[in-house]
Write a structure and sequence with these properties.
Shape: globular
Strand order of the largest sheet: 1-2-3-5-4-6-7-8-9
Distance between the termini: 36 Å
Largest sheet: 9 strands, mixed
Radius of gyration: 23 Å
Number of helices: 20
Strand content: 5-15%
Helix content: 40-55%
Order of helices and strands: HHEHHHEEEHEHEHEHHHHHHHHHEHEHH
Number of strands: 9
Structural class: alpha/beta
């Protein structure tokens, strides 16, 4: 593709080319020199530290409850009746003609969703589905942490079972992993391999999400979460383990690898956060459009990354309005969502439309039912509704964006890393850029299809990539 556009990109003579390329090259060399000088100041690890996020004062050392307690999700007639009464009072707002999902959730389709939710959705049945995996609570740093822990039903003699911590993001939940868990714990049964790579899977809820207690103190960010999840794995008896994450899960698991690399056997991500600021990145972005090989871009990188302004500026601005609200005044909008199940469903489910496939904003139904069932989507919404966790989940943005984001880039990740780059992800990060932070990229896969909610949308593709990654790490 880039070869075809190159002749038209430089319609001037050799001397004019030199007039442009020489300064650009000089700036590029200067930028790389600056990066090299700065790299010498990089911290080796993130300090683990400690914290207390419970209400009141921390109890004396040795007096904290460290037990792991079985937990079961329950519902009641009162809870369901309250939901139905609120759904019955849904106030319809007509949309403009031809709006589709360009203005957000299409209100005509929302009316269909509400009707299904009120008259056909069976929350009691979905609670049984949620309880099919073992749930637990344990108290860490003053707050109750919820997690599911699924072990293989059968392990052949001599077979090693690898612990894998999988972390969700927003507006997802632990439920996103329900379709991928059996593929990882019993892969041979699902035709993925001969059983040479088998996992036991631990899926915690980020504090403030679902059934994990929210912090009672200000400042609870991804680094605090990383520390708590390390403590969780240690409490479960694991000294070494694999990590997997997307969205906030990517940031949290990356922080875990930066914090205690000796405990992380491998890190697998389906979204990478890399700073695009700086002179060097700007120059490489400009050159990559015309001579991608010079800056290490592949043809697939070029296809996914350009036109740069459209795919990395306009698309991100179009999809990130929520982020500014949640990073500044989360409680204002959150209180309204916590009071209205319809508003909550529209706010959450709209992300499962355009973050799954950007073209879905052109569809009246947002393309939602082409990838997910309404039962699946509404179960995720119900997890936020019955736990009243939408406000605390939104606060997580404020707590993280109020900190200096550069700390995440200043600490390199040296553990073996695997990256699954899905084509419909909100942003694409070329492999060569990932190496600015992730110094040991073992696998980088251009996934054939799929978007932001990889485990929920394409569980088999993601499971296969995780297994391929772990095989390579085990051979190192």
């Amino acid at each position: 593709m880039w070869r075809e556009s190159l002749p038209n990109a430089w319609p001037f003579d050799y001397s004019q080319k030199n007039a442009v390329l020489v300064p650009v090259a000089a700036l590029g060399v200067g930028g790389m020199l600056l990066c090299w000088l700065r790299s010498g100041r990089k911290m080796k690890t993130i300090d683990m530290g400690d914290g207390w996020w419970g209400a009141g004062e921390r109890p004396p050392k040795g007096k904290e409850d460290t037990s792991i307690r079985p937990f079961k999700i329950e519902t009641s007639d009162k809870e369901i009746e309250d939901l139905h009464q609120r759904l019955d009072r849904f106030r319809f707002t007509p949309h403009v003609e031809g709006a589709a999902f360009h203005y957000g959730f299409n209100s005509s389709y929302l009316r269909k969703v509400v009707d299904y939710w009120r008259n056909q959705f069976d929350w009691r049945k979905q609670v049984e589905v949620l309880n099919k995996y073992p749930h637990f609570h344990t108290t860490i740093e003053g707050i109750d942490i919820h997690f599911i822990h699924v072990k293989p039903s059968y392990v052949p003699h001599g077979q090693a079972v690898r612990p894998l911590l999988m972390v969700h993001g927003w507006p997802g939940s632990f439920y996103e992993f329900y379709k991928i868990i059996p593929l990882l714990t019993e892969p041979a049964k699902h035709g993925l391999n001969e059983g040479d790579v088998v996992f036991e899977v631990i899926c915690p809820s980020i504090p403030g999400y679902a059934f994990s207690e929210a912090s009672h103190q200000k400042g609870f960010d991804s680094i605090a979460t990383a520390r708590i999840f390390h403590k969780l794995m240690n409490r479960l008896g694991f000294k070494e383990y694999y990590l997997q994450g997307g969205d906030w899960g990517s940031r949290i698991t990356t922080n875990m690898a930066q914090m205690l690399p000796q405990s992380v056997k491998g890190l697998h991500l389906n979204l990478v956060f890399i700073s695009t600021q700086g002179l060097g990145k700007m120059i490489r972005t400009m050159l990559g459009a015309y001579v991608p090989w010079l800056v290490g871009f592949s043809r697939e990188d070029v296809r996914r990354f350009y036109p740069f302004m459209q795919k990395n500026i306009y698309e991100v601005l179009r999809e990130s309005g929520y982020l500014h609200i949640q990073a500044t005044k989360p409680d204002t909008a959150g209180c309204g969502l916590n009071d209205s199940p319809v508003g909550l469903a529209a706010y959450i489910m709209e992300k499962f439309s355009t973050w799954t496939d950007k073209s879905f904003r052109n569809k009246d139904d947002g393309g939602l039912e082409s990838k997910y069932s309404l039962d699946e989507l509404l179960t995720n919404v119900m997890i936020y509704w019955v736990t009243s966790s939408i406000v605390s989940s939104m606060r997580y943005y404020k707590e993280n964006f109020s900190k200096d984001p550069r700390i995440h880039d200043r600490v390199s990740v040296h553990v073996p890393t695997g990256i699954a780059a899905f084509p419909q992800e909100i942003v694409h990060v070329p492999r060569v850029w990932t190496k600015n932070v992730y110094k040991n990229v073992v696998t980088y896969t251009y996934m054939p299809r799929g978007g932001h909610f990889a485990a929920f949308e394409e569980p088999k593709l993601l499971a296969h990539d995780i297994m391929q990654f772990v095989r390579k790490v085990e051979q190192l």
